[in-house]
Amino acid sequence: MLNEEIVIKTNKLTKTFGDFTAVNAISFEVKSGEIFGFLGANGAGKTTAMRILCGLLSPTSGEAMVAGYDVYKENELIKKHIGYMSQKFSLYENLTVRENIEFFGGIYGLSRKELKEKGNDLIGRLGMEKEANKLVGSLPLGWKQKISFSTAILHQPKIVFLDEPTGGVDPITRRQFWDMIYEATDAGITIFVTTHYMDEAEYCNRVSIMVDGSISALDTPHQLKEQFETDSMEGVFLKLARQAKRGE
Known about the structure:
The protein is of the alpha/beta class and 248 residues long. Helices cover 37% and strands 26% of the residues.
C-alpha cells in the first residue's frame, strides 16, 4: 500500500572504479509500498547502484539512506531490514524446500518458533505440502522463483530488492510472480526491481532508466510514454538509447 513515507533516498550518489564512473551522481526517492522499476542496459550502472543500496558496496561520494539507515555508517543494519532476490534465485539446490526456508529465515534472525510457523504458512500458501521435503534442485524453475521470493520477504522487510527476478521463466509464470509482488506491496513492502523485460516496467508505479551511469528519465510509465511520444516502455527505452548514442 503506497504511502508518503520515504524508504530510499539518494542525493548525487556516485561510485567510481579508478577512472571509470559506474554510478554518476544519481538522485531519487522511493516511497513506502511503491513498486520502483530500475531499468538500464547491461553496463548502465544499475547493479552497482543496487549493491550500494543493499549495503554491499560503499559509494565514492554522495548520500543514500535505505530503510532509515545510512549506507556509509549503517550498512549492516540495512541488511537486516531488506530482502534480496537475484536472477539465480539465491537458493541452495542441495537442500530441501523446508531446509531452504529455515536456513534463510535463520539468517534473517527469526526464532525457531517463528521459523516453524512462518515456514508452514509459506508452504501452505504456495501449495507445496507434497514438495516440502524435496530437493530444490529437482523443482521446476517457476517454483524455485516463487520459493526464493517468499524466503526474501519471510522476515517482513521494509524493502525487497529484486535483481532481474523473472529471467528465464515463461510469460505465464512471470505474470504469476507479479501477482506475488502485488500481494507484498499490499502488505506494505516496497519493491525495488531491475528487469530487462520492458512489459514489466508497465507494472511499476514509477520507473527510472539509467544510461551510462546516470538517470536519464524517471516518472510513471504513463508519463514517460507521453513525454517520449510512444505507446510502450520499449519505445521510451529505444528513444533514450538513440539520444545517448547521438550524445544528446
